[in-house]
Each structure stands twice: as C-alpha cells, then as structure tokens.
Amino acid sequence: MNAFFAELIGTALLVTLGNGVVANVVLARTKGHGGGWIVIAAGWAMGVFVGVFCAQPFSGAHLNPAVTLAMASAGTFAWSNVPAYMLAQLLGGIAGGALVFLFYREHFRITEDRGAKLACFCTAPNIRRFSQAFFCETVGTIALVLPIFLMTDPEAMIPSANGPATEIKVGLGTLGALPVALLVFAIGLSLGGTTGYAINPARDLGPRIAHALLPVPGKKDSDWGYAWIPVIAPITGGLIAALTTHILI
Hints:
Elements: H1 3-26, H2 37-59, H3 65-73, H4 82-103, H5 105-110, H6 114-119, H7 130-150, E1 155-158, E2 166-169, H8 177-191, H9 201-213, H10 229-248
C-alpha cells in the first residue's frame, strides 16, 4: 500500500471510530447514549491507536495536516510530499464522517437535537468566544505535536561476554501507536472541555464537509463561521511545536 492510501485509510478509520463514539454517546436510543465525556475521550484515543498502527508501516501515520506541516517545517519530512498527504487526510476525514452517518442513520433520524447531530461530525466551542477557542486549539495541538517530536525509542543495555555492555534501541513496531493514543486520551480529558479538541484540521474539516453534503435529517447549518478555527489553530500549534523542538534540540 502506498503512502497516499495509507493516510487516507488511517484517517478514515480514526474519524470513523472517533466520531462513531460521539454518535454512540449523544444520539437518541443508542446503546451508549449518555455515556459521557470519558467514554468519548477513550473512544477517540482508541480511534487514533487503530488509525496509527494501520498506517504506520506505509506512511509514518501522520493522519493530521498539522503533524505533516510541523514535520516538514522541522526538516524531518519532504515538502514535496505535503500536498498529497494533506489531500489524503482530508478525503479520509470526509469518508469517515460519511460512514458514521450511514452507520447511525436511523438514530440521526429520531434525534431532535440538531447540535448533537453536528457534534457527530465536527467540533464547536461550548462558550462561543473565538479568540479563546483559537488559543485552546493552538495549545491543545502543541500538547499533541511537541511530545510526538520528543518521543524516543526505549533503549536497553545488552551484556557481552567479551567486553562492555552494548546499548541498543528497541523498536516497538505498531505498539509505538500506543503512546500517541494515550497522549490523545490525556488531551481529551484535560484540555478537551472547551472546544472538543479538534487538534487536527482533517478530523474537523473533512467530516464538516460530509455534514454539509449528506442528507442528515433535520440538520442545522455546518457552522462555517467557526470552521476556520479548528483548521488554522492546529496548524499554528503544530508550527509552534516544530519551532520549539528546533530550539530545544
């Protein structure tokens, strides 16, 4: 599988499972209705885990334009690959949003709360002050991207019969997705209460486009007045994280 389809499929899985848990909690007459914020944060973390471990061997599993741009800015990813990665991530977000709607369409039909329906696709601030929302999304993305830059493989000392112990790095393979999932879980629990922690332009914009295009019964508008914040703020946060890494290391 090439990198483009890995990013598309990984992002689609991330959004399907992430927005799927939101739908399970907020839509009427689901088995998980009323499950609460911890369920949503845990579901999103597992969605990230699945998306990352599926895409990691083929694309490095960015699954987030903010991560792609930050890595390119830091010199660890080729700028020539950025457009394809970002397009794949956006298409994956649209596909994931559409799949959540198709899966829960009977529950969308009987749910009267139009805000709850929109929340199954994209984020919105609970207190509608855009400057604060921009700040929160920026800080949340720094809290995501900076630790990703700082993560290192575990090391071990292997004793030798003929000389000093040898230091080796232990690769975790797909289990390397687990620290990222735990990081997203922590961000959701700690920093997600203001805006819903998009921290990923593709995760928010892709499903928002799906919401605008799909025949969601009784839907409200797709809140395009707010839509630029979960795109620009995560990119800003990712670039700040890249600059900070450059200064520190």
